Amino acid sequence: MKTEDLITQLAQNAKPVRRALPPGALTARWLLVTLPVLAVMVLVMGPRPHLLALLMQPRFAAAEILAAATTVISAYAAFCAGRPDEPGWKLLMPVAAFLLWLAELGRQCFVLAVQTHGAALELHADWLCVPAIAITALVPAVAMVWLLRRSAKFRTTHACLCGAMAAAAAAELALPLFHAADTMMMVLVWQMGSVALFTMLGALAARLGLTALHA
Amino acid sequence: MAEEDPNWRSWLAAAQDGDTRAYASLLAAALPWLRRRARARWPGSSAADIEDIVQETLLALHQSRHLYDPDRPVQPFLFGILKLRGADVRRHRQRHSGRETAIDDISPDAGALMTRDTQEQDADQHRVMDALAGLGARDRQVLEMLKLRELSLKEAEAETGLSISALKVASFRAMQRLKQALKGDSDEN
What we know:
The complex is a heterodimer.
Chain A: H1 3-12, H2 23-45, H3 51-56, H4 58-81, H5 89-115, H6 129-148, H7 156-178, H8 184-214
Helix pairs in contact in A: 2-4, 2-6, 2-7, 4-5, 4-7, 5-8, 6-7, 6-8, 7-8
Chain B: H1 7-16, H2 20-41, H3 47-63, H4 74-97, H5 119-133, H6 137-148, H7 153-160, H8 164-188
Helix pairs in contact in B: 1-2, 2-3, 2-4, 3-4, 5-8, 6-8
């Protein structure tokens, strides 16, 4: 078909469309769904004793702030990914945030390992982390797919990866509020491992979900 | 990126509200710009590939025009679609190029198009068998004996009880009808 004929056909089929919300507004909507879900999850599971005092500790607060930053940045990147006029560097922001978060946890692990003569490096099975992350992240992940259905027209895989990371980071933001890890190495391996696992599997499921919604 | 025509923004915003004339104006104005940008980005691509990329871009624009924010310029939006869809088209081409052969310059009866050595012979045989099946029982019997099994007239006379001259006449008429059937078949093709 000649391009000029294609233009005529497209112009004839130009029905009115509802403008998609900008990435910032979509991120705000997603947080409006996600934050209450996290709060309910902490309340249902039972908050850790002396939680306020815990939040005042710089080490704990730093990890929580970085988890929150990764959550918000990843969600924003997911909503940017599907838009053709958003630059590619915005898609790399979640990676930078996640690495910074991981580096801070690694630093804390190293410092505690030195202070406790290696006790912080102890590692044993903690099977609660995987389902806790998965269940807490489920509703944020579904909300993400629902909000992405109209905007993820391009770079869909990137959008799904960023979206799944946002949901997993949100779950990891809530997890330390109701579940204590015995050592820092447990946090690094079991909790962050669960985040990475959920990001991969969640992205795959989100990709399938978006394909079904677009069909 | 050169300064864009200020009309582009208002045209695309109006197209989002269903204004077909504004949309047609935008697409017509954007077409040469898209072709130029595609040629500059992929200088090694053929004219047909560039046109494919431009068409894919226009289709993607049509499906995602709700993503455009009227407060922002149109050219980065269009160029973003061109880059992403162009990369998709080129990736698709590269993935399939090993399994495809351009046949535009090959004569239709060239041996290169054959999948088997006996392909042409098989096709002819199939046509003859079809034409034979369409003949009467007597014609089929005579042709089978004299042409396929290659019996002599005497042997055929002994087998059918017909005289040699009757067999000659029957064979001639059956051949005429077979030719007619084959001719009709080729006319249909």
